[in-house]
Amino acid sequence: MLAFYSKFKETDSAFVNLIILFESVFRGKAKNHFLAFFHCYVNLFKNNSLNSKPLKNNTMKYLKNNKQSFNLGFMLKTLFMVLIGIIIFSCDTDDTPSEENNPPGEITGYSNIKNTQWRDNIGQEFEVEGIFVEENGIAKLLIDKNDYYIDGLINEINYIYIDKVSSLDNSLNFAEYFGKKVKIKGTCEENEDNTIQVSSQLIGDISLATIVISDLTNIQIINPNIIIQRPPIISICQIYPQICEFPVFQNNKTALLYSGGINSSYAYKRYWNDLKLMYTILTNKGYPENKIRVVYKNGVGEDSEIPVHYAANQTGLDEAFSYLDEYTNSATKFFLMMNNHGGGKDDFGRPSTGVFDADGDDNRGSINDNTDEQYFYYNSSTALTDDYLATKINELGFGSMIAVVKPCYSGGVIWDFRGPNRVIMTSGTEFQVTYSHTSGLYGEFTYHFFAAVTGQDPITGATVNADLNSDGQVSMYEAQKYILANDARPEQPQYEDDNDGVGTSSPNASGFGATTFL
Question: Which helix (H) or strand (E) holds 293?
């Protein structure tokens, strides 16, 4: 008996509940629920999830309170049945998954394909299920629809690329399956897309695993309902005709708008929508077009509504900063928007995707994780870190700066970007992923920023009012207050305008940002 008891390690009083359950079973009180509860408790035992001290105390308390009806013979009988049950439920007597363990339609991930030995699976046939999405001609299946809206890397076992043999190019239209749950049978191969090949040097070799369809009958729609809507590219001037009427005045202002996208699969259209609307707002606020540089993806926009000046690689970013430096002086207002995915140290259960901080310059206070955040180029194996961005920013001789930083883990830039006369606004903290708007058209954070500074909902066109002091203009402090009041995603936007390098969710009404406007 002591040997049996010693198998169970620390959690709560689940064991005493099991004894109560078996007492009820033997006395004929709970026969209808026996198997369900028994299976639940056996799983607790198998996972070693029982806590010795509370377990012992509660068990002894129960035995003491029920000593007249609970004799040694019954207890031995109970423990014997527990041991038999554990043996039964531990054995793989049936290779067919039960509905209890694998409810219909439940997906458990692609770890049987995507693992450290995934290349051993090349040439083998697999059947996979998931939500079908496609970006820039690259298709993949997702386990969780929420991963489509996160501006960070997806856990590798929660997605897998889908391709088709060339003979199906004209007969299999991936667009027909977008957002639907499908079942696919195909062969495991290495992805041949160049951008995915290059980014695998940052993300990992496992990211190359792909299921290739060789026959039209090997893709089936399980659920015809649209689980993820395909976000369109927005025509800014149709939604905001008034801000497309550029003012004749031009101020001493410069701006850099950036979105990399990592590779073809990760370069979501919402990033282009964000940059387009931001560009249009800035020109309306007096930023000269020749002093705004757009650094995007492969150097080509998704349409012609705004220009793209440079590709989102290290050369393109460097050239953008060098160009703006020619127009910058001590009176210049510099605006920076960083869009894209982000990587960092995650405190909420997702894989950490930051870069090792060799010099430890980001360690401060209670933060000692030796991790730099990264914000990704496009089609590049070089990491774009917060340290590198800070270096390029500090080389500009501007008088003031507004930085709107959207990617996951964006709060990490606050320490690096800190300085006098700077307002830094981020979509979340240093340790969390952040999201798109539920529409998928914009980022959640940028959506509310756009609404605040224009006074108009970016989708519905409804009037909004972020002008807290009714002076006819919206400061960055007021914009952040509006964002904090309306951001509906599980993210905590951060703000800093006092050069201490510490983000806050409670902006100061008398800080530098209260008198700073676009």
Answer: strand 292-296
